[in-house]
Write a structure and sequence with these properties.
The chain is α+β, with helices and mostly antiparallel strands and 173 residues long. The chain has 2 domains: 3-87, no CATH class; 97-172, Immunoglobulin-like, CATH 2.60.40. Helix content is 42%, strand content 13%. The strands form 3 sheets. Strands 1-6-7 form a 3-stranded antiparallel β-sheet, with no helix packed on it. β3 and β4 form a beta hairpin.
Length: 173
């Protein structure tokens, strides 16, 4: 692979990340940035490129090549669970979950992304070291305002969230 091909490939992948991050920043209105969007877009683009590489040299009509490449993009990029497995290898229910370091300060608001569920149905905080699930509690403002000081966990830059889902325990440190 020549240096020119390498630079062109890195430019293309960089554009994918730039578009994904910019689109997420512009459209996100509640303050939750989904940092996996550029990754999903990259995996989708890679799937399309693999499909095109596999079809190279075959005498197929142009519309069929485009259709197969698009299907490969949707299959490889649209599968959130495959992307999560790439990001968190080995994570399962019996292991401690450790979040990336917090970039900013404020109140902890965490949830689990489950396809088909609204995010607030899986939101939780920590209460006396235990996981406290939102369930049907209305958290319109924040945990402190709606349920009191004991449900509000302050987070600072550099800290991480440690969760043991087996024992319903957690801490921020």
């Amino acid at each position: 692979m020549s240096i020119v091909n390498y630079l062109l490939s890195s430019f293309s992948i960089g554009i994918i990340f730039l578009l994904g991050a910019t689109g997420e920043i512009i459209t996100e209105k509640v303050g939750h940035l989904n940092l996996g969007i550029p990754g999903v877009m990259s995996v989708g683009a890679a799937g399309g490129c693999v499909a095109l590489q596999l079809m190279y040299g075959h005498n197929l009509p142009g519309f069929l090549i485009v259709l197969i490449a698009l299907i490969a993009c949707f299959i490889s990029g649209g599968n959130d669970m495959a992307t999560i497995r790439l990001v968190l290898p080995g994570a399962n229910a019996s292991e401690m979950f450790v979040s990336p370091a917090f970039a900013g300060s404020g109140e902890l608001r965490a949830y689990i992304k489950i396809p088909g569920y609204e995010w607030w149905k899986t939101e939780f905080t920590l209460y006396s070291g235990n996981i406290f699930w939102r369930e049907q509690n209305a958290i319109n403002e924040n945990w402190k305002t709606n349920l009191g000081d004991a449900h509000s966990v302050a987070c600072n830059p550099g800290q991480k969230l440690y969760i043991d889902f087996d024992n319903d325990k957690g801490e921020v440190k």
